[in-house]
Amino acid sequence: MKKFLSVLFLSSALVLTGCGNEEAPEETPEDTAEDVQDDTTVETTEGLQDGSYRVEDLNFGETGWKEALEVTVADGEITEATWESKDEDGNDKIDDEDYQETMTNVDGLGPQDFIPDLEGQLVEKQDPADVEVVSGATHTSEKFQDYAQQLVDAAEEGNTETIEVDNAE
What region holds the FMN-binding domain (predicted)? Predict the structure, then answer.
């Protein structure tokens, strides 16, 4: 009988000890979902954020063209780059056959040659600093690199507002 009472006493003590233990309440599915949601809002995205980014001249340059560059970012990478050079009538330099012929005769290449090259280099290399200057289109190449860097900076911040460059100076 003493054995029975000892076992009973010991069992009761363990049960009471377990009840007196202050453990954290068990998480419910709603609690877990809130924790996960809170965690995801704290995380930051590194690299380029998906979207379309554009930089454009505010004025027509000395040669009569207003230029712009637009890039598309998907899955954190530049997937498309489009360079525009428009005259006052809205005609794009790359579509101007007379301009293409004149430039080819003078420099050995025209916009139909170097613009797709610059666009392709940016998509391939992902870094404006790695885009090589096209001989015969040095000014456009350097401007392309500058505008591409501005767009990469905007894409890192996720700022999809058009960047306007006051090129009258």
Answer: 64-155
Pairing mode of beta strands 51-57, 66-74: antiparallel
CA distance 39 to 58: 42
99: Cβ contacts below 8 Å, ≥ 6 apart: 93, 110, 111
Of the candidate ranges 27-36, 77-86, 108-117, the one whose mean pLDDT is the lowest = 27-36
Cα separation values, 156 from 18, 26, 56, Å? 54, 40, 19
> Which CATH fold would you assign to the domain 51-165?
Sufe protein. Chain: A (3.90.1010)
Q: What are the sequence ranges of the domains in the chain? A: 51-165
pLDDT tens figures, 155-169: 999 999 999 999 986
d(Cα 69, Cα 144) in Å, to the nearest integer? 7
Q: What is the pLDDT of residues 102-134, one digit of tens each?
A: 999 999 999 999 999 999 999 999 999 999 999
- Backbone phi and psi for residue 79, each to the nearest 5 degrees, phi listed first: -105, -15
Say if CB 95 and CB 81 are below 8 A apart: no
Residue 121 CA to residue 117 CA, distance in Å, equals 6
